[in-house]
Amino acid sequence: xETWYKITLTDQDIxxxxxxxxxxxxxxxxxxxxxxxxxxxxxxxxxxxDHTYYFSPGAVRLALPLILRWGGxxxxxxxxxxxxxxxxxxxxxxxAFAPTEDKS
Length: 104
Prior knowledge:
Blueprint: E1 4-9, H1 11-15, H2 18-32, E2 41-44, E3 51-55, H3 57-69, E4 73-75, E5 83-87, H4 90-96
Antiparallel strand pairs: 1-3, 1-4, 2-3, 2-5
Helix pairs in contact: 2-3
């Protein structure tokens, strides 16, 4: 099982533009590895009380130092329902939620 990470920002963070800053900083990592199509940054658009950004395992492999600098925490895979893809391809989103084979 591969690790997902999440970063939760406050309303004040969003007002100060930190959500866009996080997205832009991550985009720089994505651009450097755009051919892999294995990374995705998503926002939980159903939760109006929190601003939670989810990083797929591919995104974690690309940008773990950035994620940790922003206070990212490991988490279980979110439900795809209500997620808005911010950075990454549709293929990356499908791959992030594809069933994994048990390799044991």
